[in-house]
């Protein structure tokens, strides 16, 4: 599926469309260059899922935990600073990935071998006009 985000004012609509078409799996791996809009799009998805907390990139924390509608838990990962897979093992990634709760992952290429089989790969690309194309 493809979703075009024409500008920042369009992002809530795009996030809602993403949620309405999310596959059954709960782990979503977001691929895209630096500045493509991964964090911004994940933030919009979380807001549409009812998160009231401040949503930021977990670059230094590796994972942020948010509470969505109905006391659901949402996990947001950023593996950009991971140097060795041992760091991911040490944080207990399996408890998150197999919790049944949504997991949104930035920089999944650094942990490819650990992603579950039913992971949904999401690519965000910036077009020349500044719009974004989200494919999954």
From TrEMBL:
Its main location: cytoplasm. The keyword ATP-binding applies. The keyword Magnesium applies. Transmembrane segments: none annotated. GO terms for cellular component: cytoplasm. It is found in: Cytoplasm. One of its GO terms (molecular function) is metal ion binding. Keywords: ATP-binding, Cytoplasm, Magnesium, Metal-binding, Nucleotide-binding, Transferase, tRNA processing. Belongs to the TsaE family. This is tRNA threonylcarbamoyladenosine biosynthesis protein TsaE. It comes from Prevotella koreensis. The gene is tsaE.
């Amino acid at each position: 599926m493809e979703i075009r985000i024409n500008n920042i004012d369009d992002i809530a609509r795009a996030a809602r469309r993403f949620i309405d078409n999310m596959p059954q799996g709960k782990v979503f791996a977001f691929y895209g260059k630096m500045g493509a809009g991964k964090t911004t799009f994940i933030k919009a998805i979380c807001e549409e899922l009812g998160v009231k907390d401040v949503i930021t990139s977990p670059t230094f924390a590796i994972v942020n935990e948010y509470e969505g509608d109905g006391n659901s838990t949402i996990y947001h990962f950023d593996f950009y600073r991971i140097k060795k897979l041992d760091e991911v093992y040490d944080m207990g990634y399996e408890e998150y990935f197999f919790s049944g709760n949504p997991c949104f992952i930035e920089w999944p290429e650094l942990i490819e071998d650990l992603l579950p089989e039913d992971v949904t790969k999401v690519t965000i690309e910036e077009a020349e006009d500044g719009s974004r194309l989200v494919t999954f």
